[in-house]
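Researcher: For the annotation table, I need structure tokens for HAMP domain-containing protein. Please keep the output clean. Sequence:
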Amino acid sequence: MCFGVKSLFKGMQFQFKLFISFSVLTCVLLSVSTGLFYFYTGSIVEKNVVVTQQHTVQKIQEQLDLLLAQIDNMTISVNSSDMIMNVLENIPEIPDENYFDTYPKISEEIRNYLFSLTALKPLNGRISIVSKYHDFLDFSNQSDTQNITKSDVRKFAFVKEAMQTDRYKFFLPPHQDEWTSKGKSVFSVVRPLRSTNYEIQGLIEVSYNLEQIDRLFEVEGNSRVLQGAIFDQNQTLIYHNFNIDSSGDWLHDDNLDTANYGNYKVKNPESHRNYLVTFNKLAAVDWSMLLLEDNADFERPIIILRTMTWVSYFSIFAIFLIILYIYTRNITRPIRSLKQSVLSVNMDSLRLRLKTGQRNEITLLAQAFQDLLDEVKGTMDLMVESRSREMSAHMSAMQAQMNPHFLYNTLAVIGAYGIKKGNIEVMQMCADLSDMLRYTIDSDNGKTTLRSEVIHMQNYLKLMSLRFETDLQVEIDMDEALMEVPIPKLTLEPLVENIFRHAFMDVEPPWVLKMKGTVRNGRWAIEIKDNGRGFGAGAIRQIKHKMEEDRYLLQSGDYFDKSKGGIGMINTFMRLRLFYKGNETIEFYNSDQGGAIVVIGGPIGE
């Protein structure tokens, strides 16, 4: 599968490769940036919800604490009343009669006092006073008190607890109001009324309708009601304003036992809905106020944000794809034009059909490619010419080798004739010339030693000495250490031959030729010096210029022109350069005393 996709991608046009590559890169970048933006903003929204919930539950907790404090202040005021405490201390034990019903005037005084306590703020519940003998008095702004007896009062659980407790007060969680038959739910503060000697003379219960807590969860200016719950110090659910099972265990969390405030997440096992729970401990009593937020509610803006984010992502991606396609099409148009030009190249002319007027990188590349084609065509033409010359040289070599023994035998006959006539020099000349011809014609891959080169050069100089006699003076000083150094064949003789053909021309004898070979610092060097006319300024520039040309081996006139001294001095230098790969020594200049000096050399051991 991967191989097929890879093969398909390789077979695509460059424009589509570029388009797909940039599209994938853009898709990855947009996906990563969009995902990061989504998760970041989602976490910000969730954090804001948690902070808002914490502020809200803290506000509700403070309002409930204030409400409980108001209730508690009423109980303290009653306990501080000398009138009420005197009444309670002097109530006799009457088994069945209610003291406050028997003495209505005393009851009226107590009610007037209680009314004064609630004058500034309407009473939203009930105040009940019970004596130590269970006589009772009820004060409320509603006439809903049921007919009860002292025997009924004795059965009230909070009455029993208040008459026996050591605490100054205790809070009753939401419960059914014992004083009415209408089944109202209330929450209360109960305070034992103690005399100066700390004896319980009775109790006071101040209860508020549960509606007062319900109102705390109502949002002002909105019909929405926040979902809330309250746990007591035993982690028992004592209040909730939404549908829930009887226990509400799924609402409980260990954080309620250890922390004063915080948040956690729960799941309703009945509705399978997830909730974010924020809680705060009350200051007045060891209760925990809980505020629930349905995850679906606070995730709604996150979902909206997610939808808008992905819609924006796909919109931006689609627009970018259109722009990218147009851009890649325009940027690859010169490449397609270059491709068509390359495909239409004629091997006869090797010319590109370039559109002028554009000066971009592709056009410059096309021009460079055209220059390369011109170079290739020139190289092809030179190769054809070189091949032709090679064939010509091969034919010449074949002709030269058709019967070399004929030349050797002829030179032997001439030498024998010289001996017969008593001319030893003729025999020696023939022998030297025969050695030179054999050295020149023998095939040994063009490589020899300096010793063989020196011997070949000495044979040539012997012949030239016989020709010019006393007009020629030759001095040769060769270090034996360089005699076995490898060197291209026919290196020294062309340089010496060039001296006779050019340096000594139009110069009066005697002619002096000196050759010295030395070894120094791991390199060998041979200096050839003459007293001829020297190099002309133009000749030195021409030689250097030809040596710098890249196609020196294919130039006409240098390799086969016999008028320039065999294979020529320039090609001798070039063969030396090729042999030593640029590590050779080649110097040529005019001597201050007249004549020219040529120095060649190279490393020993290469």
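Researcher: And a one-line annotation?
Model: The two ends are 56 Å apart (CA to CA).
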